[in-house]
Amino acid sequence: MTEQMGFLFNAERCVGCKSCEMACKNENSTPANVNWRRVSSQGTGNNLSISCNHCESPECFRVCPQRAYVKRRDGIVMININRCDGCMTCVSACPYKAPQFDLEKQKASKCTFCLPRREAGLQPACVSACHTGALSVINTDQPPKNTVPTIEGFPDIRLTKPSIRFRPVKEKLRYWIK
Amino acid sequence: MDIHEVQRLQSDLLKIIAEGSGVEGIVEALAKVIEAPVIVTNEFHKILASTHKDYPRHSFIRSSNIGSEKSPELYQINLGSNMNEAYQFPSFIKNKILGYLIIFNDGLDSMSIQSLGEATSLVLAVQLAKDKEFSLSEKRYIDAFLFDLLYGNIESGEDIIARGELWGWDLSRPQCVLVFELEDYDYYSGDRDQLEVLFDSVQSVMNELGEKPILTKKKGEVIAILFRSKDGQQEQNEYTKLLADKIESLVKQRIPSRELRLGIGRIYKKPKDIFRSYQEAKVALELGKLMDSRLRTPFFTKLGVARILYNHDRHELAELYKETIGELERYDLLNNSDLMKTLETFLAHRCDLKETAKVSYVHPNTLRYRLKKIQEILDADLDDIDTKLNLMVAFKIKFLVASEIDK
């Protein structure tokens, strides 16, 4: 009856095109300063695409004084913006910077795992937009084989237990660069 | 025992199942026929029914195969200091083991036991599958309710209390959440038996002390919602600590290879706030792990400054650390000394010179010399309370953000 939806990220496939970031913005009509998904270069030739990881122990959920957060039975962490009073406690508590503060509305908002799309039987916008297949949706209760809980550059996972798995990153072989 | 007798026994046992006497009925009937003690365990070796006085119900046994070619089902059955030889037969459906039938070797010929064991384990599989299906469907409802409770998905307190009453829980009483985990237990590849033993240990200690908490498992965690039973906060904390210590010693005895980790959330009066206690317990557990047992009492309320530090910017913390005791660390590296350890022990023992010297196995004068050296390196006065506080914080940072500091 309960499960945990999450993302699977393959850093080796990510080319840093930011299609996922744009698709998220387009789908959810977020304002200019709000990026529910962000792609960053790690300086090692790899990129990292991070959004809300719908953690097992969400800090945003724990610290919110207004009880604006809920964790659904499918594991998705949602925010009820009607309850949010814009105190920004969640914004500073989340190690992944998932809750973003909307300056216009003066409230926090975050990734909803594209709930309307999922209800229509579609993948989240970021996953559909990823043309290299670096992002995919998994049930983290039964993660695929050959995946690891974290990779270099990803924030500390110990406290919140994020619902994301990674393909292990192999060292790049560049024969033509001495 | 010929084939007709075995068939007759099998149909008698099937009749027992149909009458609803369950696993106990099967065990008693079989023990009567073969005149030897019989045990049935679940797939995790927990005894479900027994006619052997040394192997009571609900205890966990260990078995190791000592069989030969002639009797491959012969096992050594251990429970504490009890050690006996017995025949063990797995009960399975579609290669999935549901439990074990154990017949104690009491002078019967192995051929008869083998045919009897095989016939009975098949009947037993039917009963165990039925029991499992029943408990799974009930568990599904309970798990869904507990998930909603622990993640604050039920808005109304009255609704929570009414639903709790369905399972006999009085959720109108103040309660706190305790979370137990085994050190380095990986849910995906870990040994599920160990989690089952942990769950049973928590349950048996709580029952022994007359507590009736709500217990559930979630991935690698065992979660207990404990109702407040003492009036004063101090008294309740001491009682919870006593419970935790008892569980810890029992788990140490049952699973010696792993260390138990525990976190205790705050007590909340309203059932709709249990989710906060659960999240706090998990924070206390994780921080307890990071502080490497420096938190003797894993209460969220007693985390102190660590509660602020863990949420602070990691780079800034690493900077503060380097500025406070970075010099000493560098000195240790260059001179192959261990002044960091000396300072840590000194602070951990309330800056008591005598006590620190005793636990470090050094003469107090040696320690005095080392502390003087530390003061010189850090250019700080160890008698100053502000310096002590800064150093204490720096050591806490060390355990919290070890990876950033290394960089």
What topology emerges from the helices and strands here?
The complex is a heterodimer of chains A (178) and B (407).
Chain A: E1 5-9, H1 19-28, E2 38-41, E3 47-50, H2 59-63, E4 69-71, E5 77-79, H3 89-93, E6 100-102, E7 107-109, H4 115-119, H5 125-129, E8 135-139, E9 164-166
Parallel strand pairs in A: 1-9
Antiparallel strand pairs in A: 1-8, 2-3, 4-5, 6-7
Chain B: H1 3-19, H2 22-34, E1 38-42, E2 47-50, E3 62-65, E4 74-79, E5 82-93, E6 96-104, H3 110-150, H4 157-166, E7 175-182, H5 192-208, E8 214-218, E9 221-227, H6 233-254, E10 260-264, H7 274-290, H8 306-309, H9 314-335, H10 339-348, H11 353-360, H12 364-378, H13 385-400, H14 402-406
Antiparallel strand pairs in B: 1-2, 1-6, 3-4, 4-5, 5-6, 7-9, 7-10, 8-9
Helix pairs in contact in B: 1-2, 1-3, 2-3, 5-6, 9-13, 11-12
Précis, in short:
Chain A is of the alpha+beta class. Chain A has a single domain, classed as Alpha-Beta Plaits, CATH 3.30.70.20.
Amount of beta strand of chain A: 15-25%
Give the CATH H-level superfamily of the largest domain in chain B. Reverse transcriptase/Diguanylate cyclase domain
Number of E strands of chain B:
10
Approximately how much beta-strand content do the residues of chain B carry? Answer: 15-25%
Total domain units of chain A: 1
In the CATH scheme, the class of chain A would be Alpha Beta
Classify the fold: give the CATH topology of the largest domain in chain B: Alpha-Beta Plaits
From the alpha-carbon coordinates, what is the Rg of chain A to the nearest angstrom?
16 Å
Shape of chain B: elongated
- What's the overall average pLDDT of chain A, rounded? 90
Largest sheet of chain B: 6 strands, antiparallel
CATH architecture of chain A: 2-Layer Sandwich
Count of alpha and pi helical runs of chain B: 14
What CATH architecture label of the largest domain in chain B applies?
2-Layer Sandwich
Order of helices and strands of chain B: HHEEEEEEHHEHEEHEHHHHHHHH
Biggest sheet of chain A, strands in spatial order? 8-1-9
Helix content of chain B: 40-55%
